[in-house]
C-alpha cells in the first residue's frame, strides 16, 4: 500500500507566506513554518532543500500572480491601469502582497537558494522589468528621467501607498485604487519640471 503525503508543498508555502507577511523574512524559520503548517520540521526537508528554497518557491508563486495582473496593462501601454492593477491585486491578495511588496527580493529568498530557483527568480523579475521597459518605449519615455518617473508612477508610488497598510495588516481603504487614475491618466505625457 502506498502512503500518501500528509503534508503538501502548498501547506508549507502558504505557511511561509503568512509568516513573512505578518513578521517579515526573519519570521519564516523552518521551525516556525513547520509549526504553522502543523507538521514536523523534517517533513519540510523532504520537499525543500532549505528554507531559502522554500521561500524562493513561494516568491515565484506570488510573483506570478502579480505579473499576471500587470503584464497586460504594461503591454497595452497604460501606466495608470498598471498602477491601479497593482493596488487591486494587493487588495484582492493582502497576505501575498504583504509578503512580496514591502520586502526586497534578496531579503526574502535569502543568500543561498538553489541555483535553479535563483535563476527562476531572476527570470521572473526580468520578465517584469522587460515588460516595463517595453512599456516605456511604447509611450516614448526614453530618457533616464522619464523612465524613473514611470517606475515611480507604476511601481514605487503605489507600493509606498500600500506599505503602511500591508505592514500593519490593515485592509486597504476603498478609495486607494481611485487615487491612481486621477494622478496618471492613460496615455499621460511625461512633463519635465
From TrEMBL:
Keywords: DNA-binding, Transcription, Transcription regulation. Residues 29-48 bind DNA. Gene3D superfamilies: Tetracycline Repressor, domain 2. SUPFAM superfamilies: Homeodomain-like (SSF46689). GO terms for molecular function: DNA-binding transcription factor activity; transcription cis-regulatory region binding. Residues 6-66 form the HTH tetR-type domain. It holds the Pfam family TetR_N. This is Transcriptional regulator, TetR family.
